[in-house]
């Protein structure tokens, strides 16, 4: 049993829309979580600084060792 070219194209379009919709929902959920929990933009740098034994200066946005 073979699938015609037009059916393959329709399947490809439907799958692309499905994957795109899932990606958009995940992006929106991530943004909502950051907004809800007031995610600090320097969070990764702060975490790295504290893990290395430093102290984060919030006014200067710098790590002090």
Note the run of SSEs as H and E. Answer: HHEE
What share of residues are in beta strands?
5-15%
Basic shape: rod-shaped
How far apart, in Å, are the first and last alpha carbons?
Answer: 69 Å
Question: Number of helix segments?
Answer: 2
* Strand neighbour order, sheet with most strands: 1-2
Largest sheet entry? 2 strands, antiparallel
Structural class: mainly alpha
Uncertain regions: pLDDT < 50 for 5+ in a row? none
How many strand segments? 2
Notable features of this structure?
single chain; 65 residues; mainly alpha; two-stranded antiparallel ribbon; 2 helices; 9% strand
Walk me through the structure.
With 65 residues, this protein is mainly alpha-helical. The protein is built from 2 helices and 2 strands, in the order ααββ. It is rod-shaped. The chain starts with a helix and ends with a strand.
Brief summary of the model shown:
With 65 residues, the chain is mainly alpha-helical.
What is the secondary structure topology, with strand pairs?
Blueprint (H helix, E strand, L loop, with lengths): L4 H32 L6 H9 L3 E3 L4 E3 L1
Antiparallel strand pairs: 1-2
């Amino acid at each position: 049993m073979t699938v015609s070219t037009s059916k393959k194209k329709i399947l490809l379009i439907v799958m692309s829309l499905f994957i795109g919709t899932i990606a958009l929902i995940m992006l929106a959920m991530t943004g909502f979580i950051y907004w809800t929990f007031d995610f600090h933009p320097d969070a990764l740098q702060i975490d790295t600084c504290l893990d290395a034994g430093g102290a984060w200066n919030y006014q200067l946005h710098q790590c002090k060792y």
